[in-house]
Design goal:
Layout: H1 11-35, H2 42-55, H3 63-76, H4 84-93, H5 95-99, H6 115-118, H7 131-163, H8 169-183, H9 186-213, E1 227-229, H10 231-234, E2 244-246, H11 249-257, H12 260-284, H13 286-289, H14 299-329, H15 331-340, H16 349-373, H17 379-404, H18 413-424, H19 432-436, H20 452-465, H21 469-498, H22 507-524, H23 543-561, H24 567-574, H25 578-598, H26 600-636
Length: 640
């Protein structure tokens, strides 16, 4: 433990993580099936333990314990690992997969061939036919994925936190929350309570009707969720422009904590792509840009289709350019970061080589497993997707989160490479290789546990409050992950045994799972051709290469002219739809108004505990609404 660090791995923090995994895991599984995500549970547990320690006259939880508890809960209670296997079962036996002719080619190492399992007559993972799929899943998603992401995350942490000292606004907000709750300083607590009350009441109004409405099978909303769509009002003048306002409180209050330059660059990138770019594309190049567009297309539908047709290739070009420029820009920091690895963990000079050895061994073993599962598929694309692409994405996303708090939107690199490879090798669509390759376990598809950029945020938060990173890794690897595996296995089997999933009891799964199967089937049957690259797809327009060149040239101009412009923030904005960047910009404008009224120094001092209150208020409100919904659902699901 380095100087200035304090112990966070205590009996109280371990007990809180165990409590969360035991009590909250079934709630998480249920919330994901009903609403698509679980939220608001972490800090409710922390508040409960703060109350307990205060009630029994014990010392309050320290900031280090609070950070460790929150990190542990995010894994132990928010990661229903085995619940993902229910979706696999549905996929294999779904009418959508049968309609596309995929059912017979779905491999047995992904989901058992047993028809009783695929049609969910047998609803348990405690079946001999599940043994091989479970072994492959545990090997790739836990034993290989977690060490790889931890190593990449630590390298990115040394680069962007220790050497470059980036802002990491949302990680700092989490750290400030822990400090405020741990120290209970009166002036900071007042602003935290203010943020709590505002967001708690807003969340009840905005999300209450939507969440509670699911009980009656008809969710309603007083406030549009997740954003107000104004495209139908502007399409006459700006056809295809994605105009809207996000109703998520975090989008607004993020304008208070994200650096000003990053907010402006994000806004510019988002508007240039999704407003100006869409308008130009639909006005002058509609047949190539978005042929199916017509007046009346919603914001969501326009986004999805224009992304697939055009912007996916552009985003990949942007991302590759960011990776190259970051390697150039941060080369000294990366060298220092790697050199510093020689001094960690007490291994001295051997520690760096130990990490390299572990990363190489895990990556090569993963390539071997994937190639063994499907030996007919070329190995070079697997080497790229398993060894190189994870490093590139960790570099890009960790930098993006460090600057603006958001990662660049997920890119269909795997899908594009698979389509190009299968087409080039003339592999039939309906074959074991043509279908089976889409179910291979890869780092981009098995990421249930934290990715590298998430570990960077956890490490930043730990460093900010003086918590040993070793404690974070121990809590995650030795406590949180094993607990999540055990509890998710137990509760997945229990919940699945009640009835087939999806069903009317789980509206989100009933609506979105079939859509997910259809979207996957479109890729598998190669009904979607999105790679606009002259190199990879001769004859296609060179959007990928063009966007790459434009970003590299912009980087050169910015460096030569010494302009205060962030290409990383611009790329994040370009991958984010305008409702969120517009709302964040409005939040930033309000922040500047408040600063002019009360003074920037004072506002900057208290904006962090205020944002912490926003976070806790949202979490407490949604947790309360979800708990009430579970109770109402339980009363409705009676035998009569």
């Amino acid at each position: 433990m380095t100087k200035g660090e304090e112990k966070g791995l205590t009996f109280r923090s371990v007990l809180a993580i165990v409590f969360a995994a035991t009590i909250l895991m079934p709630v998480t599984i249920w919330m994901q099936l009903v609403g698509g995500q679980a939220a608001g549970l972490g800090f409710t547990t922390i508040l409960l333990f703060i109350f307990i320690t205060k009630y029994f006259g014990k010392s309050l939880l320290t900031p280090q314990e609070i950070v460790l508890i929150n990190t542990g809960i995010s894994i132990a209670a928010y990661t229903p690992f085995f619940a993902t296997l229910i979706f696999r079962t549905y996929f294999a036996g779904s009418p959508e997969a049968h309609m596309f002719g995929l059912t017979e080619f779905i491999p047995s190492w992904w989901v058992p061939k047993n028809p009783l399992i695929r049609n969910q007559t047998v609803r348990t993972l405690l079946h001999i036919d599940w043994m091989f799929p479970l072994l492959i899943t545990l090997l790739t998603s836990v034993l290989l994925y977690v060490p790889i992401q931890l190593i990449l995350g630590y390298i990115a942490y040394q680069t962007y936190v220790v050497e470059e000292n980036l802002a990491f606004p949302f990680a700092r907000a989490e750290a400030e929350t822990a400090i405020t709750l741990g120290e209970m300083e009166p002036s900071r607590m007042r602003f935290m309570v203010m943020g709590f009350i505002i967001t708690f009441l807003y969340s009840l109004i905005a999300y209450g009707p939507y969440i509670l409405g699911s009980v009656a099978g008809a969710p309603t909303a007083i406030v549009p969720v997740p954003f107000a769509d104004f495209t139908f009002r502007t399409e006459r003048y700006l056809p295809g422009a994605l105009i809207g306002i996000a109703t998520d409180p975090f989008a607004f209050f993020s304008g208070f904590i994200i650096p000003a330059g990053s907010v402006l660059c994000m806004f510019l990138g988002s508007v240039l792509v999704w407003v100006i770019g869409n308008v130009i594309g639909i006005t002058y190049f509609k047949d190539e840009f978005l042929p199916e567009w017509m007046p009346g297309f919603s914001l969501t539908l326009t986004y999805q289709r224009s992304f697939l047709h055009t912007w996916a290739s552009v985003m990949i070009g942007f991302s590759l350019a960011i990776a190259v420029t970051q390697l150039v820009d941060a080369r000294k920091s990366i060298v220092k970061a790697i050199s510093s690895l020689k001094r960690i963990g007490g291994f001295k000079g051997a520690s760096l080589w130990y990490l390299i050895l572990v990363y190489a061994a895990c990556s090569l073993l993963w390539v071997f497993v994937a190639h063994h599962l499907l030996p007919e598929f070329p190995i070079l694309p697997l080497l790229f997707l398993i060894i190189i692409w994870p490093f590139v994405t960790s570099l890009i996303n960790a930098r993006a989160i460090g600057e603006v708090g958001y990662s660049i939107a997920a890119l269909p690199m795997r899908e594009m490479i698979f389509v190009a490879t299968l087409t080039a090798n003339k592999v039939p669509v309906y074959s074991e290789v043509g279908v089976g390759v889409w179910f291979l376990p890869l780092p981009s598809t098995v990421g249930v546990y934290p990715a590298a950029e998430t570990w960077v945020s956890h490490f930043y938060t730990a460093r900010y409050v003086g918590l040993s990173i070793g404690d974070v890794v121990k809590a995650a690897a030795l406590i949180a992950i094993p607990l999540s595996l055990i509890m998710s296995f137990v509760y997945t089997n229990i919940i699945w045994s009640f009835s087939p999933i999806p069903s009317q009891a789980y509206p989100w799964a009933a609506i979105n799972w079939p859509i997910g199967v259809i979207q996957s089937a479109l890729w598998i049957t190669r009904s979607v051709t999105v790679l606009k690259s002259a190199l990879a797809n001769p004859g296609a327009p060179p959007l990928l290469e063009g966007s790459f060149v434009v970003m590299v040239l912009a980087y050169a101009i910015i460096k030569l002219a010494r302009l205060p412009f962030s290409l990383v923030a611009f790329a994040v904005g370009a991958s984010t739809i305008p409702p969120y960047t517009i709302t964040t910009m409005i939040g930033y404008i309000v922040y500047r108004v408040v600063c002019s009224r009360f003074g920037k120094d004072r506002v900057d001092k208290y904006k962090w505990p205020f944002y912490a209150g926003v976070f806790i208020g949202y979490g407490s409100a949604t947790a309360m609404l979800i708990t009430l919904t579970i109770g109402l659902k339980a009363m409705w699901m009676l035998p009569y």
